[in-house]
Amino acid sequence: MEDLKFEKALEKLEKIVEELEEGDLSLEDMLKKYEEGVNLSNICTKKLNQTKKKIKMLTKERGKFIEQDLKIEEEDRS
Asked: What confidence tier does 77 reach under pLDDT thresholds 50, 70, 90?
């Protein structure tokens, strides 16, 4: 499942959320959907973090543009 594109993983995750919110699933099916949702969420997070690392920012220094990594602070998850 790791080879899923971000958009497809997010689309599947949104569908799972809708199904869970409807509440028409058995407890066992809800647990399966929840587990799948957690996996999809992890995939989306991983892909976003990989993308953040690739983002470059142009800055002007002494009349020349230089490329440098964009510094993004991680959210505190505690």
From this structure: very low
**pLDDT bracket for residue 76 (50, 70, 90):** very low
pTM of the full structure: 0.67
What is the pLDDT, as a whole number, of residue 52?
76
Selection from 70, 2, 77, 78 nearest residue 40 by Cα = 2
State the angle between helix axes of 27-54 and 6-22 in degrees (0 to 180), rounded to the nearest 10: 150
C-alpha radius of gyration, the chain, whole number: 19
Please name which of 19, 22, 75 lies closest in space to residue 49, comparing C-alpha atoms. Answer: 75
Contact at 8 Å (CB) between 63 and 43? no
Using CA of residue 29, residue 27, residue 18, residue 1, what is the dihedral sign?
negative
In the chain, which residue ranges form alpha helices assigned H by DSSP? 6-22, 27-54
